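Dear colleagues,

As part of the handover before I leave the project, I'm documenting each prediction I ran so the next person doesn't have to rerun anything. This entry is a single chain, and its sequence is reproduced below.
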Amino acid sequence: QYKFRDLTIEELKDVSKTYPNFTFSMNTYTFKDGSQKDLLNFSGTVPVKYGNSYNIPIHLWILDSHPFAPPICFLKPTANMGIAVGKHVDARGRIYLPYLQSWSHPKSTLIGLIKEMIAKFEEELPLYSLSSSDAARQSELLSYIAKITEGETDMKSRSKTGGRNEGCFNKITVVGAGDLGIACVLAVAAKDVADKVVLLDLSEGAAKGGTMDLEIFAVPNVEISKDFSASADSKVVVLTVNSLGNAQTYLEVIQSNVDLFRGIIPAVSHYSQNAVLLVASHPVEVMTFVSWKLSSFPKSRVIGVGANLDSERFQYLLTNLLKAEVLAKDAWVVGEQGEDKVPSWASCNAVANQTEAMAARNSREKVANRAMEVLKGKGQRSWSVGLSVADLADSILKDKRKVHSVSTLAKGCCNINSEVFLSLPCVLGTSGVVEMVRLEEDPLVQEKLQSSAGSIHDLQQQLKL
């Protein structure tokens, strides 16, 4: 079955010698199109130093064209571990590395791949331990949702006042019925953001899993549909879908997402021509750009969730953990999701001279570094991203004019000349981005943003829109 059997066996022998804990087997792998193949695979743990020493469980599938094609790589978390979605890991635990993107025999080897995997994991841990506090917060959210289904919210008091004006009817459509899509629906319902929520389930076959449970327990004002017309006249459309294809490189995975969006964005844009598109799909910067191009909407009405969750956490840590409430007021996490995000502050003209400005910057940097270290271990679970989406939708629908760090067109900011989306602090209202908040001129932040813009632009140039 394996075209280059001897070469493959030699490589696996090397892996076994270097990592004796790995176990090898032949199992069936199912690709996106439903096709299946019996493939060699191995799993075990790799040692990672991130302050302490950790053993990160991984699972690699060897394609039958190995070593001329890279393996398919996944994390294999235990029951008490959560996946920290980042630049190199998606929500399913699939691993994407530069080494895989540039795979070329004989230069590329399994040993070399594992070494790069360890190096990247030491920069950003891909897993976190599920703490009791995380479990408690999840329980609190689910408890609130249970109350909604029992009619214990302020629905009665609202009906006494005659309800909302029909002309101000707030409708949200969530596209994608995976874990993230359902988390968004539940969070929007829990925060009472909209009058109606439509969940567009684009999966094939009958309702199953989470969508079936939503139907069984009948969350009020939530409709599940497979028809795009159900999304008509939405004020916010949330994109949560990601292609679960058999693509082998990071570029192919993104291209697969682009192909998926080609069938979605024009349809939702047709039925909700005045909506704000809110993108939560991965990678958020690129998929927000793709949504903007495919929709032909103005840039103000196409935004990504960006670093909103990280910024809210960052401000919370500054205020509650580090007791730096004054610093937290205008603090943001900006840039791109993953290891290249960076803390920044809104521009302030109150500092009298350059010496004072430098002193203020140095004191902030120490506190910011502590907060960012804490953030590294938090990860982004579906339900936490769902809460972030509900937070953004709330600001948009209620025209709160609140500042959020969201993915927006960054051209013209920080000497960026390309059409890329990066997370920047923006005032949000019913029309999406009302204005962008000016950042303090920090050379390190600008360098980071320009670097991110360059790599994202290069990636976008390789996509077929």
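The chain is about 40% helix and 20% strand. The domain at 307-462 is CATH 3.90.110.10 (L-2-Hydroxyisocaproate Dehydrogenase; Chain A, domain 2).

All the best with the project,
I.
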